[in-house]
Amino acid sequence: MHIDRAELEHVARSIGERWGRNLKARHTTGGRKAGAWPCGLEDARCLIDELLGARLNDELREPLALIAERSARRAWSVLVSAS
Question: Are 71 and 16 in contact (CB under 8 A)?
Fold first, then answer.
């Protein structure tokens, strides 16, 4: 089965957005304030590996990890700004 790269990028963006929202919700439980984005690219690589890794080669995994990490950062920042 072949999955188009654009579709994988869309999936990575969605994964990142959900990751950012979920992490923000867990981080702020109990009234803690959210500061700077607490994760990095290595965390995004692990997440992509966990969710899609069995189907991806390293050349494709890296850009998807970047997309997921940036999307998560953006979701985190939007939620922090709205708080």
Answer: yes
Cα(first)–Cα(last) distance of the chain, in Å? 43
- For the chain, domain boundaries: 5-82
**Rounded distance between C-alpha atoms, residue 58 and residue 40, angstroms:** 18
**Torsion angle of C-alpha atoms 22, 43, 39, 81, degrees rounded to 10:** -40
CA angle 14, 16, 22 (to 5 degrees): 100
Residue ranges, the chain, pLDDT below 50 = none
CA-closest candidate to residue 80, choices 9, 32, 8: 32
pTM: 0.86
